[in-house]
Predict the structure.
Amino acid sequence: MSDRLSPQDAHAKAAQFFEGLWSDGDFWGLESSEYEQAKYAKQLELLPVSSVGRVLELGCGAGHFTRLLSPRASDVLG
């Protein structure tokens, strides 16, 4: 018998892990880090002032940068 999880079970296990990870707040302190805040500001400066259309935000973590980015895009997937 295989030890591999079905895709549905793997998804459920991953969802449970990340829900638990973020349930107590910002696990890595990204929202309170001065360095991260400066980096987010610089990243937003690089974008045009007008809407950038659709955005794929890879590595979105808890979504802090995604929330900052969302007013600048018509559609954000993160």
The first strand starts at residue 54 and ends at 56. Strands lie at 54-56, 75-77. The radius of gyration is 16 Å. The chain has three helices and two strands.
